[in-house]
Prior knowledge:
The chain has 268 residues and is α/β, with parallel strands linked by helices. The protein contains twelve helices and eleven strands. The strands form three sheets. It has a seven-stranded parallel β-sheet with strand order 3-2-1-4-5-6-9, sandwiched between helices. Strands 7-11 form a two-stranded parallel sheet. The termini are far apart. The relative contact order is 0.13.
Amino acid sequence: MTxxxxxxxxxxxxxxxxxxRADGVEVRAASRSGETRFDWTDRGTWAAAVQDVEAVYxxxxxxxxxxxxxxxxxxxxxxxxxxALSGRSMDKVAGRFGAGMAEGERxxxxxxxxxxxxxxxNFAQNFSEDVWQEAVLSGRLELPAGDVREPFVDLEDVAEVxxxxxxxxxxxxxxxxxxxxxxxxxxxxxxxxxxxxxxAVSYVAVTPAEYRSMIxxxxxxxxxxxxxxxxxxxxxxxxxxxxxxxxxxxLGRPAGTFTAYVERTWAG
Length: 268
């Protein structure tokens, strides 16, 4: 079988590619700058990507518009399984945040072929890869997350789960919540990073208005600031707080802890 991995140079995609290839699976690694060129905004790149492919790891774009057409084209080309990466509680908060992920869920469920949805918490690696990395390295992480607790999930676990369900018929029609085993605050998270790395890092809880001003002042459009504020509102409301045991059930071992991620990533 050949598996198409979209977003193959991204945080999850590159790990899924590596995991599948280590298991001896034929992988077509696709992205705008990857081995196989794939661009959601260029439909001329789709046909070669989906040709002779049995399963697709779908990382949806922010814009939901092209997703349904891509899924339909993939099915017409012979794809028989989709594994869609999504966000925790997306089934409960769709319409407030993550329009692309919500449409990815809907499109694969309506595809007429096998589908599995992976609803992940915020990644532990967000502290060291994109998202919050620059702020952590600067020594001051400012977010409108208050003292909410989050069971940050290790991307290595996400990739292992994705590889498992991409190569099995046992998970059709299922949605899994992927989280770490314990929920911690952002203050506790940066404290752990500071302790292991020797860096001075602090977390500062800011108001949504202050955060919006920061984001717009950094050059981002106001609509981006508003969408991010909606994400943090969802977090403060507790939609992402409770740890799930789905990783342990799927992999037969406990999910990786935030401490293990920190020690592996930030030591030295």
